[in-house]
Amino acid sequence: MKKCVVIGAGLGGLSSGLILARNGYDVTVLEQERQVGGCLQCFVRGGVKYETGMHFIGSADKGQVLYRFLRYLDIIDDIQLSRLDVNGYDVVSLLGQQFRFANGGEQFVETLAKDFPHERDNLRRYYQLVEQVAGSSSLHTLRLDESAGAPLNTQYQLLSINAVLDEIIGDEMLRNVLVGNLPLYAATYGKTPFSTHAFIADFYNQSAFRVVGGSDAIAHLLVKKIQEAGGKVLCARKATKIVCEDGVAVGVEAGGFFPADVVVAAIHPARVLELCDSPMLRPAFRRRIASLPQTIGGFSVYLKFKPDTVPYMNSNFYGYRQSTPWGCEDYNEETWPKGYLYMHFCNKEQQQYAANGILISYMHFKEVEKWMGTKVGHRGDDYERMKKHKAELLLDLVEKDFPGFRNSLQEYHTSTPLTYYDYTGTEQGGMYGIAKDISEGMATRVHHRTKIPNLLLTGQNVNSHGILGVLVGTMVTCAELLTTQRIFNDIIQANR
Hints:
The protein is of the alpha/beta class. The protein has 16 helices and 20 strands.
């Protein structure tokens, strides 16, 4: 059996490890933290469990793309899902006026057409284009012929979201509504490609769910399946070096030496370059990785509610203190926060009251950069005062949309991009890794292959972020070792 060492036990590392373990590889997954999961991690404070990253998922109804991937991984039957409101899984509030995204093409169009009846036909054109662009990916359709959708896929990777919407939608307010959930991908005006928007929109428009009890259940199931396939997952094993000899990787140092025929790095490419000093990774490549734009980070407030005071909100709420979601990343001390995302945690099906929830707003890494090198929980009084000040500003904004909100709070906790950096290793604590930018063309795309032939990359920086983007990236990486046809055939067979 060939030995495969996977660095990082987030979704990309665990799913890659499982697929390779089931296909004849002796797999060892190394995780620097004491718990697995990456963005699937949850944590407990005051007897309450909180999500850190994977707050809800889409396309998980039978036959839909995420369902098929989870069936292939053999974990879908053990995940309990709670469906979000089909008539408004996302609610966008612009200056107090609320708009709802409904599941399904006709329902999505008709729900928004109530507020924009003159745009009904354009909404249909928009929805059809989203479906076409999302369907242009062979991995979304499980179509072996990649050339069929390639031209359309490439075209909309080079056109910005706002440029495409300007062509399709005449009403400016509706254009702003349609990007109301852009915190899900941290889009930037004039830069983020329409393809990114289309994949996200299609993913959730099909169906939307929360994972009951927390998305860490997915991580734990993947660990279990890896172990059943003969692999190992080792925590508190921080990789310190990828050892190379004669132009190939021969193992990983992580509190001991782990020999490898293949190394799969499911971490940010910048962290990979820190671990590997091989001349095969040339200076030009290192400079390119160092210069890539990163998505903005997030400031999070983890909310614990007084018992039986807050009705469970079966949707995600995007609140803005301006007429557009664009530009929330351009702020100063007086204008922050310009917007926020508010969600509840699902503890059980048919939930009546929320025990806890989360608020997320944009935050640049430069605001916390001076605390780099400090440890979580030991960053000093200035850091804690800064977080409290920001939390209070954010809570004040939410109070305007939800009167009485503050009175329902029992306690709250906070995190910054520095927290995210420490736990995930993502450059600058960016929420979604490397940012896609049409002005850079394909230069912001990180390939799953490296110049070291047996060192492969996976995770949210290869292909895309989110549960679907990462799993698609996993298939791309594993296909390098197993072939695309073999993976496609296995996915199709598992879903019969």
